[in-house]
Amino acid sequence: AQSVTQPDIHITVSEGASLELRCNYSYGATPYLFWYVQSPGQGLQLLLKYFSGDTLVQGIKGFEAEFKRSQSSFNLRKPSVHWSDAAEYFCAVGEGLTGGGNKLTFGTGTQLKVEL
Amino acid sequence: DVKVTQSSRYLVKRTGEKVFLECVQDMDHENMFWYRQDPGLGLRLIYFSYDVKMKEKGDIPEGYSVSREKKERFSLILESASTNQTSMYLCATRTATNYGYTFGSGTRLTVV
After folding, report:
1. CB distance A100–B101 less than 8 Å?
2. In this complex, how many residue pairs, one in chain A and one in chain B, have their CB atoms less than 8 Å apart?
């Protein structure tokens, strides 16, 4: 069964500092990988996704992520964090479904706090 | 923009009550999902549906059922609510050919 590990429950960074959120996955085939962000009281918003091709993917809000097959990782990065980036971040891996579509398995999330 | 609307943001129900959580989407998406979100556990899949009247169990279906009579509406049913079902419930949709999910804003259910 597929699984996702986000080893950092909480991370605190200063505004303007760089950010890296870690994600490791377990999946037998080529994974479909996603990062979502959840602001307080809101649903989840897709930041970026990886299906194939270039292993460095760009997303919204200045985020990027790099797929490393050898490390089973899909870490999220941002060169300079803004106070508005404070939120919870979820990594997810997609699995194909009989009948079409896929289902996502999520990590437990990383809560990002930004110090001014 | 795709809209996924969950009927209630906050809900308080009593133990033993039958509870309906409704989710409506406006973009003709085939796949719909119900997740529950708990601190430290992330999102866990309860049930999903890839077509009208079709449903599949997710990872934690116990104590829940679902209904999808129309393509745009996917209902989560708690047959007899219990306190351990206090949680945030998130509905999501996606097309069969596009892997991006769209989430609703969630329903925070408290069972007392």
Report:
1. no
2. 68
